[in-house]
């Protein structure tokens, strides 16, 4: 086998025009391929079963007639693949993804020539993070935060009772409705005994506005124009008529912070003070977790900005495919059946930064020796297990599965990176209020 030629830049017409694209010309001897093909056919002949011949006694000519093309292709792939492996090893190339190997010419003659096109992992030096500015949110949980959360918990357990007044926001109504376009009922435009809470955005705002002000027993007809971007293209931008019958109007009844409510929230003592303490403890943990997540995101964003490296197209394609498969599986778990059509371009914008960040983190972990130790992994598992009723079982559940352990190791690696960056960057603290860190919590 001849030695592969020196790496050359990919031609301008090639799809791999990035700085990471390379081509190598590979040459192999036709005799070597022929010998490897004959050897494969000989091995096949020892076990091959063909009608009219005893096992292992099939003539070589017959074996070649049946499997000659297969044996030749397998032998050629093996030899060319080995030549490619030797070439990249000799030139110390770190290949990302799989090469595209194509014949150069008609593959006749004593020497067979191939062109291997591939991409390299980027070589880069990590930018200094000493001048990086990172903002760390700060919030101390207050009694007002706890009271607000308790109010949210009470509203989440709201009940409803019939009221003798006009419907208003936060009321629960039960309605019948029938939609018509040009006097003809349209698909999906009818419902009976339909319950909904006004102000939750269950139906279009114009529809809910037509319900507000109605009392139980009200029957009315109103026009509604669907938004131009409405999902049903037959109705988008069209004006239709709805027959509406309001059957019930129920006002919200928020439970008191009494013993029954406290016990319903899992506090066996039934004491409001104990619930208050439990909520405060949980809030502190949640605030800490959310602040940490924000800091982590800020660190990752800063690393990404400081290191605008080129990314192998093959790796982006692999990550795109992985995201597609994960999304498809999630949708199936939610009840969607049949083939779920997806386009790769829907996921590319997510895949590209994920791949780039993965390369940056891998370089940082290797350069600064930020590997996850067994002690760190065990501590992380123990921390997660503490939130469950049977921690020991949770620990065992993690440790008996390599994939789950790999996920924990990945988390620890990221934690090591975040800690390393924060110890060197310019970190400033900024006080933020409760709503900013927690959001609306379902209100």
Protein model, in words:
It is a single chain. This protein is of the alpha+beta class and 443 residues long. It is built from twelve helices and eleven strands. It folds into three domains: 21-120, Alpha-Beta Plaits (2-Layer Sandwich); 158-253, Roll (Chitinase A, domain 3), CATH 3.10.50; 265-438, Trigger factor, domain 2. The chain has helices at residues 30-47, 60-90, 143-156, 205-211, 259-264, 272-306, 313-333, 345-368, 374-385, 391-399, 402-422, 434-438; strands at 8-9, 21-29, 95-103, 111-120, 133-138, 159-162, 172-181, 184-197, 219-225, 239-253, 426-431. The strands form three sheets. Strands 6, 7, 8, 9 and 10 form a five-stranded antiparallel beta sheet that branches. The chain has a four-stranded antiparallel beta sheet with strand order 1-2-4-3, sandwiched between helices. Helix 1 packs across helix 2 (60-90) and helix 3 packs across helix 6 (272-306).
């Amino acid at each position: 086998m001849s030695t592969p030629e020196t790496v050359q830049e990919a031609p301008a017409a090639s799809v791999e025009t990035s700085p990471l694209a390379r081509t190598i010309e590979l040459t192999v001897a036709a005799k070597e391929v022929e010998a490897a093909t004959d050897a494969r056919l000989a091995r096949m002949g020892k076990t091959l079963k063909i009608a009219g011949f005893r096992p292992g006694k099939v003539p070589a000519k017959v074996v070649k007639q049946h499997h000659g093309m297969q044996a030749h292709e397998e032998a050629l792939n093996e030899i060319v693949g080995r030549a490619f492996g030797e070439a990249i090893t000799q030139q110390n190339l770190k290949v990302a993804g799989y090469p595209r190997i194509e014949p150069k010419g008609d593959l006749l003659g004593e020497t067979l020539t191939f062109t291997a096109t591939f991409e390299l992992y980027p070589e880069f030096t990590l930018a200094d993070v000493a001048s990086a500015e990172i903002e760390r949110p700060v919030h101390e949980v207050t009694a007002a935060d706890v009271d607000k959360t308790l109010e949210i918990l009470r509203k989440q357990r709201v009940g409803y009772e019939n009221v003798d007044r006009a419907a208003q926001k936060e009321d629960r109504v039960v309605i019948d409705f029938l939609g018509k376009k040009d006097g003809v009922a349209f698909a999906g435009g009818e419902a009976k005994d339909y319950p909904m809470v006004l102000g939750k955005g269950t139906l279009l705002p114009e529809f809910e506005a037509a319900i507000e002000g109605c009392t139980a027993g009200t029957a009315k007809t109103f026009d509604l124009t669907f938004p131009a971007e409405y999902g049903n293209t037959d109705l988008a931008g069209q004006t239709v008529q709805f027959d509406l019958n309001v059957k019930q109007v129920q006002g919200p009844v928020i439970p008191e912070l009494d013993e029954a409510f406290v016990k319903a929230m899992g506090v066996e003592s039934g004491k409001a003070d104990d619930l208050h303490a439990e909520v405060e403890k949980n809030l502190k943990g949640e605030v800490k977790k959310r602040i940490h997540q924000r800091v982590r995101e800020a660190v990752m964003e800063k690393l990404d900005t400081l290191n605008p490296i080129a990314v192998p197209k093959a790796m982006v394609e692999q990550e795109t495919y992985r995201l597609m498969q994960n999304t498809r599986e999630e949708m199936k778990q939610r009840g969607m059946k049949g083939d779920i059509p997806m386009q790769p371009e829907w996921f590319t914008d997510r895949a590209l930064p994920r791949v780039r960040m993965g390369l940056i983190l891998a370089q940082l972990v290797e350069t600064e020796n930020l590997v996850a130790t067994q002690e760190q992994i065990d501590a992380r598992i123990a921390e997660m297990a503490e939130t469950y009723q049977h921690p020991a079982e949770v620990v065992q559940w993690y440790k008996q599965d390599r994939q789950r352990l790999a996920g924990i190791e990945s988390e620890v690696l990221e934690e090591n990176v975040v800690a390393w960056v924060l110890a060197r960057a310019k970190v400033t603290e900024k006080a933020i209020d409760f709503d900013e860190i927690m959001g609306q919590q379902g209100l």
